[in-house]
Amino acid sequence: MASNPSFECAGFTRLPAVFTAAECGHMTQVLGAVAGAGRRGLMEVPAVRELVDSGRVKDCLQPYLAGAPRLVRVIYFDKSPGANWLVPWHQDLTFAVRERKDVPGFGPWSMKDGIPHVQPPVALLEEVVTMRIHLDACDVENGALKVLPGTHGVGRLGAEQIQDCRNRVNEVLCEMDAGDVLLMRPLLLHASGKSTSERHRRILHLEFCGVDLPGGLEWSE
After folding, report:
1. Which residue of 105, 143, 177, 183 pairs with 195 in a disulfide if CB–CB is 3.0 to 4.6 A?
2. Distance between CA atoms of 12 and 26, rounded to whole angstroms?
3. Is the pTM of this model over 0.90?
4. Who contacts 176 (Cβ-Cβ below 8 Å, separation ≥6)?
5. What span, in angstroms and rounded, lies between the C-alpha atoms of 98 and 56?
6. How, if at all, do strands 87-90 and 190-192 pair?
7. pLDDT digits (tens, 9 = 90+) for 155-184
8. Using CB atoms within 10 A of its CB, is residue 125 exposed (0-12), middle (13-18) or buried (19+)?
9. How many CB atoms within 10 Å of residue 96?
10. d(CA 109, CA 79)
């Protein structure tokens, strides 16, 4: 698959019908219910491992990574009437690693679900591609993702800079059908509203990188 100039410029792209409705239904059955906003640590689930290793996933990612796609984080989100939340405008700024090691340029550190997380240098964040596999159709009513195109190219942003981007850049609502894939850079400003629908909004959120970490740091997955 050739590189997509619009992805490099906008920081995201929508890929329609990568997976079938039957495949999406099977994945939701395998993953089951989610307690709270999201579920991590899914690489031991055979269906997830099979999907990650599939040619379709690799073909989607290969044009945008420096090396072979390597999964570095996976989260299963299910926004529903029983678990509904609003996500303010933000960038994804942390890596999940196996253990803390003090490496220049990495920090601050935090813990999420018992896993060490760290903010890496911007240059490494720019090597990551996030793949969001939509297992349900999503629109404004059930909390589809909103993005500010092009904001992935201006580095790590503070609160005032985020507000400035919101004032200057027109947001895009990423309406998707079940089986569609959204690719995005983690530095792209994104948000989502609360669901006002009875429908689920189930998404398999996968982060891939094509490079190794320095200083003895290892990816968590």
Report:
1. 143
2. 27
3. yes
4. 14, 134, 137, 138, 144, 182
5. 28
6. antiparallel
7. 999 999 999 999 999 999 999 999 999 999
8. buried
9. 20
10. 28
